[in-house]
Known about the structure:
The structure holds 2 protein chains of 2 kinds. Chain A is mostly beta strands. Chain A has helices at residues 2-16, 150-154; strands spanning 18-25, 30-33, 36-40, 43-48, 51-58, 65-71, 76-82, 86-93, 98-102, 106-108, 112-118, 120-128, 131-140, 144-148. The A-B interface holds A 57, 63, 65-67, 69, 72-82, 84, 86, 89-90, 102-103, 106, 108, 110, 112-118, 120, 122 and B 30-33, 35-39, 41, 43-52, 100, 102, 134.
Amino acid sequence: MKYFFILLCYLSSLIANVDIRIESKPSSAHITIDSKPYGVTPLENISLSPGFYQIDVSLENYVPVKYDFELQSAGFSLLRFQLNKLHTVVIKTEETGLKFELDKKFPWEDQQMEFKMEEGIHTLKVFKGDSLIDEIELEVIQSLEYFFEYSKIVE
Amino acid sequence: MGISWIDKRQLINFVFLGQFFFWGCSSVKVPVYPEPILLDQNPVVFVRYEYNEVQLNVSAKVVDGNPTAYKLGIYKVQDMDSPLLSRIFFPGENMSVILPSNSLSVEDSGNVVIVVPKGDDFEIVKHYFKIDGPGPIDFPIANIRINPAVLTGIVSERIGDIPVGGAHVQILDSSGVVSSTITNSSGDFIFELLSTFKDRNDLYISVFSDDQYPIWKNTINFQGLKLLTQNVILGPSLLFLKQGMVYRVIQNKSPLREGPENGSQIKFFLSRGDYFVVEKVAGELLFGRIEIPIDNNKNFEQFEGWVQNKNLEFIQ
């Protein structure tokens, strides 16, 4: 009788769970669900009960994803993550006394700096003292070196 | 030393320049920003669910009227304001819908399918149900009819106003019994008749109660309305019973005669269950009176006469 109830509980838990497949583009991303590692994508036959989960997706040179997910009661669920690439960008200048700022929140003052930047359009602001002297849209679609010349603006 | 002619300072400069020529500017390491520059975009995630499905099959049979369409609504009972699904079907179409099983309640009578026929004053059909899992659910055939003409009433005894349960109530027309029912323990009865009955004037109601009382009859006329109440009071008045010894007629068509002699004129025939109050006896013949309801059962008229003893049963 005891084994029957154990079997019944096991079966009922199977009925309640949802089969999940997790994919990513590109594949081979590491997946953790509520801090428990599950392996690399594509992942199949993950069985979870309906509820709230945090899914972390990480792949070298791609933007890591932290996704809060409510799994609904269903027969099957597919999750596909589109990962955004990180490119190496070097920003240089020969000018002195300039301050730079990326996307309103990443400042620096060095004449050259290397960044890992998410693919997409970023805003570079250049200050001399407190004055904004230039604002540039940087479209990052590959690794690049950007050379800032202040003299051209003066001309 | 063989190379003593080279100045030490020159040697250092030579090594430095050599390395610079070989490695170029890259020998000067570019500082790396301590954190990645992200765009704070929401992650691009595609989520797809595949639900187990429940197929709800509803069939309709038109009993009365000509519906032009059916509006089918599926509701969770706890949220009757928002249908899970609402769809119009036309007569002849297969009324079948598919829903994800997780959208429906597993509680007893937790869901309801409502069929609203269009085109006239039709009765709304409701089927309550629960789901046990995916698969088809076939509902009983929905009888589609225009809202019926309803006749209700209570059958009770005149003395003491006691409800008469188990009384047989019939609706009749010239061709015979149209519908029949039996009163419940409270004496209540209800008839749901086709809507066309509201316009008929050839109907009458008949009530009988296991020979306890004579058959009670009256005409019924809805006069175009869909609800009519007809209460029925059975039995004689108390005043009548106090006039003598009470007998009950046990033989249908028992003659009530003018006099005790053979061949005396018959006033009319008594029915089984009629009450007969006896004043005097002459051999096998009893003289007494009978109470006949008149004016649509509102008043009574009494008639005197002679009845044979074999057709009567003494009560009190």
